[in-house]
Amino acid sequence: GLRHYCMGLANVSKGEMMKNTLGLAIACMCLAMISAVTAFAAPKTNQIRIQYVPPKEQNHMPTYEFLQERRVLERLQEFLSPFLLPRTLDIKVAGCDGEADAFYGDDEITICYEYVDDLFGKMPDKTTPSGIAPYDTVAGPFFDTCLHEFAHALFDMFSLPILGRQEDAADQVAAYIYLQLGPVESLRLIKGTAYAFKAEADSKGMPVLSDDHGTPRQRAYNVLCIAYGADEEVFSEIVSGGYLPMKRAENCAEEYEQVQDAFEELISPQIDRDLAKKVLNDFWLSGSDTEVPRQ
User: Fold this and answer.
1) CA 162 – CA 169 distance, rounded (Å)
2) Which residues have C-beta within 8 Å of that of residue 137, sequence separation ≥ 6?
3) 150-189 pLDDT, tens per residue?
4) pTM value?
5) Terminal-to-terminal C-alpha distance of the chain
6) What is the CA radius of gyration of the chain?
7) Burial readout 231-259 (b: 16 or more C-beta within 10 A, e: otherwise)
8) Cα atoms found within 13 Å of the Cα of residue 183, Cβ hemisphere only
9) I need a surface site. Which of 18, 98, 120, 205 has the fewest CB within 10 A?
């Protein structure tokens, strides 16, 4: 085929090639065509590859085993399967030499065992007065973080234009995606995520205002606002319970619509609608009474 023909031209001796300018031109055109075909491969579904990296630190073994037993990455892989990605995206959990973090780079998302352990460490002993189950304080922020890093992957793979800070946009995309789930699951995820941001704010004291992320409290208010803007009835307790000031809540519907418009314009074309409908009709969270390792 085309590739073999081009390779054959590339193997012509230097002397012969110099005599045949036309052959050289054709060879260059062929190589350019091959590069273009490779670079613009048709996006397709089921492009997520997962890995549980065995931990180097023994104290990460309970987390490693818990995630495997609950098939957490397999479920995430299935949830993200409708996205039409141009190339494979790797998602792994691994040790990060003491850094409680998660990050994206070079078509790979890494969720650190240290980050998951940190969520376990901040988990309350019992359901909070606002009705947040201990398990949801882990599942909410874990899912939110995975989708936040997935948003970075989408921005990169599709060279999406972003007006403002990329970290803020990734937060909005993450929340928008799981708000498309049913009201029960989306409420659990939103409340769990907001709890984690508040716990982070309480544990760190004065925030680093120069960070490229918003402060934990800002991120909590933002995720609560986009939820309230999505459905004031389902998320009514966000305002009635005093978790989001009414002055901010008045504009949340507009904030949600802004995110929705951008998502529909830039990201929805990269989703298999039929497969997405099937995925969103499933139930993704374990029961609120699920036991998790305590650090």
Assistant:
1) 7
2) 119, 122, 123, 124, 128, 192, 195, 196, 199
3) 999 999 999 999 988 999 999 999 999 999 999 999 999 9
4) 0.83
5) 58
6) 23
7) eeebbeebbeeebbeeeebeebbebbeeb
8) 8
9) 205
pLDDT of res. 137 = 95
Share of the chain above pLDDT 70, in %: 82
Alpha helices by DSSP H, the chain: 2-10, 14-19, 21-39, 61-69, 72-79, 113-122, 136-157, 166-178, 183-204, 216-230, 237-240, 246-249, 252-266, 273-280
What does the pLDDT read at residue 283? 83
CA 246 vs CA 25, 119, 214, 225, 240: distances in Å: 67, 29, 21, 10, 9
Query: d(Cα 249, Cα 63) in Å, to the nearest integer?
Result: 37
Looking at residue 295, its pLDDT comes to: 60
Per-residue CA distances from 179 to 148, 254, 256 (Å): 13, 16, 10
Q: Return the ∠ at Cα 35 (arms to 32 and 37), rounded to 5°.
A: 110
Picking from 216, 231, 244, the residue whose alpha carbon sits closest to that of residue 184 is 231
For CA atoms 184, 186, 189, 194, give the dihedral sign: negative
Axis-axis angle for helices 61-69, 72-79 (nearest 10): 50
124-151 pLDDT tens trace: 999 999 899 999 999 999 999 999 999 9
Residue 211's CB is within 10 A of a number of other CB atoms, namely: 9
